[in-house]
User: Fold Phytoene synthase from Streptomyces tremellae.
Amino acid sequence: MRSAGLRADYTAAARYLRRREPALYGVVRLQAPAGFLPHALTGASMLGFTDDVCDNGSPADRVRQLDAWTGHVTRALDTGDSHHPLLRAFVHSAGEAGLPRHWFDTYLEGTRIDLEFPGFADEAAYQRYIDTLTWPGIMLSTGLTPNLVPDDDFAASCRLVADACQRTDLLTDLTSDVAEGRFALPRTDLERFGVSRADLEQGRATPAVRELVLATADRARTTLLAAGRVVAEVPADYRPLVRVLLGLYHHRLDVVGAMGADVVRRPVRDNPADCLRLVAQARREPLALSA
Assistant:
């Protein structure tokens, strides 16, 4: 049985996630097995808190904040304790799951890329970003899940999830990224389809932009379908949570496909009714996904 102090730490982490991402909190709360729920909420909270550290304040503030947070995490990993309740809970969860230390170190180092995001010159640069930030981040949450295959095989499946979700996010976040001066679609992709930065900045829904968007979405879909193997790699009572999270990204790609070039004019929004349907279907096997 967990101590009262540790229970309070997990409660603090859950409350943080509920405030920051109520939809994600609700999905995890409904789908995660009872015994795993505190770990699932804490893993998501750890990622959200680190994002907040990197996103708030001036560039100099963000560097100082990340340096301080990295120091807190490193000391917590070295000593097993921290003054920060969210971090205490997360270190405990990671210890119970046997999560290797290198995922922490790689993720924290990778977060520095986003402090002054340079964009992706080509697909190889995008894939390096997956390896140094997105994949380790996925492992700090999904990696807490028990698995039925060798750890290296499970991690490889999680990398497919990371790649598919990140490429989908490039499209769903396109308008907000461009507004902030972030051009996250690989430059070689823009050049291949004859799309300029000005097209994105000015929200030009041209045929070339449509081709770029749909090609990117198709690539994300292919990877997401391959990532579906992860469902069979976790115990049966964990599968509804994994299915609904994968299904959410299939839903987002459906929306992107319907919007086409309009993703440069307005953000992609989740359809609440479709999200509820995903939650309801996630306990059925298999979950119907778009091909």
Summary: The chain has 14 helices and no strands. Confidence is low (pLDDT under 50) at residues 287-291. Residues 151-172 form the longest helix (22 residues). The domain at 117-291 is CATH 1.10.600.10 (Farnesyl Diphosphate Synthase).
